[in-house]
Amino acid sequence: MTTSTKWLIGIGGALAVLVIVAVAVALTNGRKPPTYAEDTPEGITQRYLQALAEDDTTRAYGYLSADLQKRCNLEDWRRSVSFGRRQIEESGVLLKEVKRPRENEAEVLVTFSEVQVGRPFPVPPREYSFEQRFMLKLQDDGAWRFSETPWPSYCPEPVKPREPVPATP
User: Fold this and answer.
1) Looking at the chain, which terminus has fewer C-beta neighbours within 10 angstroms, N or C?
2) For residues 45 and 134, is the Cβ–Cβ distance under 8 A?
3) Confidence class of residue 169 from pLDDT cuts 50, 70 and 90?
4) Res. 103: pLDDT tops 80
5) Is this model's pTM higher than 0.90 or not?
6) Are the C-beta atoms of residues 150 and 48 closer than 8 Å to each other?
7) What is the CATH number of domain 34-146?
8) How does DSSP classify residue 158?
9) Is 53 within 8 Å of 89 (Cβ atoms)?
């Protein structure tokens, strides 16, 4: 293969990728994602992820249950979510399923998808996706809040002191 043939193949591949991206943008640009009601587990999950994407960590923190907020103060929690903002911004987010094991509990499954483009020419672009589970409970005030630390944050479980082992005579 000559050098000019390789250049033509490279340019053709780059143009094909640009066309695919343009079509994808055109198809998704006109559609707004549904907005779920705030009094539902999926609505709280959606608002939490939107708050993180907008870097409104105070609002996102407010969706944690009082028990989680006691376990993880706002500043520690902000540090733990800082790496996830970019991933949320650059990902397609899809509500996959809402399960209700009990009336006051919910599990929201969300799929995050990201197209990874190689540089300088993506041949071919790769899609990476992963699923996250968000656990919520209906609080006494009637609001849904996260009952387990939601992705991408981390609040460690409190360490329980070990009970002393009785001395043997």
Assistant:
1) C
2) yes
3) low
4) yes
5) no
6) yes
7) 3.10.450.50
8) P
9) yes
